[in-house]
Design brief:
Blueprint lengths: L3 E4 L6 H12 L2 E4 H11 L2 H12 L5 H11 L8 E4 L5 H13 L6 E6 L2 H17 L10 H15 L1 H8 L3 E5 L4 H12 L3
Parallel strand pairs: 1-3, 1-4, 2-3, 4-5
Helix pairs in contact: 2-3, 4-5
Bound molecules: adenosine monophosphate (AMP).
């Protein structure tokens, strides 16, 4: 079992790469963004509480996301967990370390997807346009205003995790700008054979 974190700003391709790892390595994707969107759609108390925060592009409280992740870790099976969009703050990173240790699990790789900001904006705006063209609706937070907030949240609160995991000797960085297959190959090279 291999447990990894995919780290990177919004639009870096974390979800896309996580999906490939699920398909290819039988891993379990734990996306706090997906869990929160689900809570929002199904209208749970927690969902109602976080809706406006998410739409604005701000981070929800550490307590909420740590709780969500904690519930999922007991089902450890298959190829391992992919943490996608979690942790996003230093307290979340500490909490994850403790949670994993308490369940006898290890954190094997933290893989940073490196991209530049202009590409991110293009990708996110493109993602919204594609969703609409396909007859669906864009994510409520895929708009220019909340994107600015999401990027700022990333730089203020999440990017310190790069140094945190580097200092722990766990960090690998891959170029997230290439084609999906090329990024996937770089991630595979970090993780070794499936
Ligand atoms: P994502 O799909 O990962 O981009 O997450 C969408 C939104 O959910 C974020 O902009 C936050 O409002 C919220 N969110 C997701 N994961 C976290 C997290 N680990 N900590 C705080 N807020 C989060």
């Amino acid at each position: 079992m291999t447990n990894i974190i995919l780290l990177g700003p919004p639009g870096a391709g974390k979800g896309t790469q996580a999906q490939r790892l699920v398909d290819e390595r039988d891993m379990i994707q734990l996306s706090t963004g997906d869990m929160l969107r689900e809570a929002k759609t199904s209208g749970t108390e927690m969902g109602k509480k976080v809706a406006a925060i998410m739409d604005a592009g701000e981070l929800v409280t550490d307590e909420i996301v740590i709780g969500l992740i904690s519930e999922k870790l007991d089902g450890a099976q298959g190829g391992g967990f992919i943490f996608d969009g979690f942790p996003r703050t230093l307290p979340q990173a500490d909490a994850l370390g403790q949670l994993l240790a308490s369940k006898g699990l290890t954190l094997d790789y933290v893989i940073e997807l490196k991209v530049n900001d202009e590409v991110l904006v293009d990708r996110i705006v493109g993602r919204a346009a594609e969703a609409v063209a396909a007859g669906g609706t864009a994510r409520a937070d895929d708009n220019a205003e909340s994107l600015k907030v999401r990027l700022m949240e990333y730089y203020k609160k999440t990017s310190p995790l790069i140094g945190y995991y580097y200092a722990k000797g766990a960090l690998s960085s891959v170029d997230g700008l290439g084609a999906i297959e090329d990024v996937a190959a770089d991630i595979s090279a970090v993780m070794g054979k499936a």
